[in-house]
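May I ask you for just one protein sequence along with its backbone structure tokens in two labelled lines?

_____
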Amino acid sequence: MKNQFRRLLLLAGLAFTQLTGVSAAEPASYHNGLSLQGFTGVLNTPNAHVTDEGWLYALYTNQEESKWRHKASYQDNYQFSVGFFKFIELGGRFFEAPRAGRDLSANFKLTSAHLTSDMPHFPVFAAGVQDIGGGAAKLQTRYLVVSEDLGPLRLSVGYGQGPDRMKGAFGGGELKVHDYFYLLGDYDTEETNVGARVVLPQFWQVPVSFTATAKTSLSYQPGNFEIALGLSLPLDFRMKAEQRGFSPKSHPLPRDAEPEPAKVLSPATSRDAMPQEPQTLNSLREALVREGFLNVRVGTLGRALVVEYENVVFNHNELDALGLIAGLACQAAPEDFDTLSLVIKRRNIRMATVSAALPHLRAFLNDPDRLEDLREHLVVDFDTSGTDAAVFTGGDENWGGFNTSLMLAPALTTFIGTEIGAFDYYLSFKPELTTMLWKGAAVTGRVNLPLAWSSNLKDGKQYSSSRQPTELDRLMLFQAVKPLPSVLLNLGAGLVVADRYGMLNEAIWSPGNGKHRFRVSQGWTEEETTHRQSELFLGSYRYYFSPLDLFLEGAAGKFWAEDRGVSLELKRFWEDTAVSFYYKGSEGPDKKNWQAVGIQLSFPLTPRKDMKPVAKLQVRGSDEWSYAQETTLKNNNVNNPTRGSLNYLAPYPLVINPQPTQALYRSFYNRDRLSEDYIRQHLGRLREAWLKYGKAEARNSGE
């Protein structure tokens, strides 16, 4: 084995001496692809780098583990990795090999690359673990590895502790022959492997890159190739080469002289005698109504232009609506106005006021270099009483009452690597109809329409209870109330789920700049046939770290299935895509303890700009579509000596915190992003939305 390791390093060194004069790849240009084991690396060994921050990698390979080649007729491996931070990758793996077993596990790797990014010739160090969690550890190892980039050649050596893989010294090399082609070789403490990797570029304006890897072992049947097919995509769904700056060809806004700091004007300043521009204000109001905004009012408060609106068309992010309206208001505002105050509404409840000096706002929309000026003078206030004394223009206020939204979205539930099967699924279609009523009120109904399911969900099979029939699974009336600037209540009653009537209530307190948020929820239901009653009561705290768009939330109490326990969630946003890693631990009503960990991916499944309501009806997709997969951790709930060797499912849903479409965080708080800290951190989104959508409105209005 040692001779094979030395031979591999010698071949890599000779290749380097021959090719350094031909190719000169920069270290930063390497593609940090997934190995056939699921961590970033060569073939079966890791390097010291990690998945790019904000990227998702996925890989399938048919490679068979050497220790059960003669036992299993085949092996399927499904792997993924997420660059959650620039210094860590988090990933998972599921494999199935007949007569060898199946396993669902996690892995992670920490790297020093970000600490030495300005020292290209300094080696990079990393530490990682493969096959964490679950009851069975079939491919577990812990390792240290160091990598050095020498022109087009990346060399990696390390030491693994096993016990299942990489027991001892290992090493490998990646030779970048071309931007899209790599030659690979490694020694994994058992075998010497060679292969090649092809990395296709993003194309057709689709932000997905595909990879293909072929590998053969020099120690076992050389020439018998195993393959891997993978893809990588940015979690913000932007093209990799996309410039984050904005086009200078936007139509310019009028510039003003020395700007004054923005402020939410007090009622006293409304007494200042200022010339009114009713025709201009009416034109602005009509433009906003044309865009599909509801509950629109445009008025004046001293030298401030005040615009109230409710957004139902930009369902990726409230900042898109804020940016378009800010640009239109800057164009329409007469010269003697010095401040713009935008009042954000939800169900005709005034949620927040965003104010800025018009000169600062115009300067930023014309020049992104003026971002810090705007950020310094911007005011975000959840006490909207500062605009109570505004004088609004007459005309149709575009009342949102009886405005109806039909949301069309699928639902997918999967069972991966369980004691029953390798992969089971249930796919359904869930159209949801929501009608706004009076201030703060809405009625919503949702139907479940099954589309497809696996054999284990058929009648009489193990998971048949997880297959919901065609039915009305929600019909509720919600009433929101804002008693204090930082407090919002949401009271709901009706058919909570298909066979349970009751109530679902919540309250959110988000003091200050939005860094902290407290939530309590209470519910009570009764089953329609058995009249069995159940209740839930939960409390949670969320902390938001704005520089990374990072959310940490903990919840505790009595959950939906009347299990008592805790949940922890670490969530990060990239644009409008959120990735969450979570932990659940609870004691069920049967006094059994359960633990689970999982990952959730959430993103809008609808165009960035939805259709405008037509005759008060709007058809759109989901503003937040989620897919989650979890695995139970080893426990002793079942009197079975093999308990824990597979992903056994609990007999009831674990730690469910019910948050329907009308939940406060989603319907009122922009997926928990309507806060001062978030708005200040993402002012660039305002300008991007203005440049993308402002021109079309300017053409429609004849400018």
